[in-house]
Amino acid sequence: MLEYKLFKNSGAEYVVLIHGIGGNSNIFYKQLKDYRKRYNVVAIHLPGHGGSSDVHEYDDELTFDLIAREIFKVMDHLHIKKAHFVGISLGAIIIHHLMKKNPKRISSSVLAGAITRFNFTSKLLIILGRIVKGFIPHMWLYTLFAKILMPHKNHKQSRLVFINEAKKMTRKNLLAYFYLYDKIAHSYQFVQQIARDIPKLYISGEEDYFFINLLRQDIEGDLNAKLTIIDHCGHVCNIEKPKEFNELSLDFLDKNMDKAASL
Q1: 228 and 216 in contact (C-beta within 8 Å)?
Q2: DSSP secondary structure, 181-234, as one string
Q3: What is the pLDDT of residues 211-223, one digit of tens each?
Q4: Which end of the chain is more exposed for a tag (fewer CB within 10 A), N or C?
């Protein structure tokens, strides 16, 4: 089973936190204090992160289906029928997949730094990464990508948090997630049809240049989705602008409470 951290608040609903690639529950350190006042919080470590099993310990190759299965397994273990979800970057992609696999288990979702598909520049970066990954240290590749995605001075703190957490991963685990990026172009497909009744709050930084325009286009037809842009902010908005992020996300979660579903 995936490693998780449970912060209990008796009688409250559950919020499940899903981190991005290279991160772990530590990337939510600016949310936990506020979230724990109102909710039971479950912070899950994805395969290959934190104390969860390495990706090669599974019988199957690492896929979004495998990750979804393991997350639902944690919920089953904790007897959580339904929960709110908050995801950052890759975490938002995974939540899209959870919605498609079993929408009845998701009360609402906050998707920060969400990625629905790649633009031309980001596709070139992926190709470059494939070319050089075999002969450079994996952390060089990760650090390069982090600096390209979060290039400005105001992005420094969030960039360093992800880089420092990624240093705890093995090369094999980190590169396994690199191969998942082939599937991202299809990760949002059918979300609007299957999960049309799930309230979704997308939060992106104004300076999340690679993904924000495509995200805006892709969610346009979803009547249950709202996109909020945080000014002067990059890809990892929960770290860079925690006050704004916490206010936006908690206001949204509070409005979508469904206590009977999570008890």
Answers
A1: no
A2: GGGGGGTTTTHHHHTTTS-EEEEEETT-TTTHHHHHHHTTT-TTEEEEEETT--
A3: 999 999 999 999 9
A4: N
Strand order in the sheet with 106-112: 4-7, 40-44, 14-18, 83-88, 106-112, 200-205, 225-230
Q: What is the CATH number of domain 4-262?
A: 3.40.50.1820
pLDDT digits (tens, 9 = 90+) for 227-242: 999 999 999 999 999 9
Other beta carbons within 10 angstroms of residue 260's beta carbon come to 9
Q: What does the pLDDT read at residue 76? A: 98
Pair 223, 246: CB distance under 8 Å = no
Of 26-35, 64-73, 133-142, the one with minimum mean pLDDT is 133-142
Looking at every residue in the chain, the average pLDDT score rounds to 92
Q: Which two tokens mark 156?
A: 């420094």
The domain limits of the chain are 4-262
d(CA 51, CA 53): 7
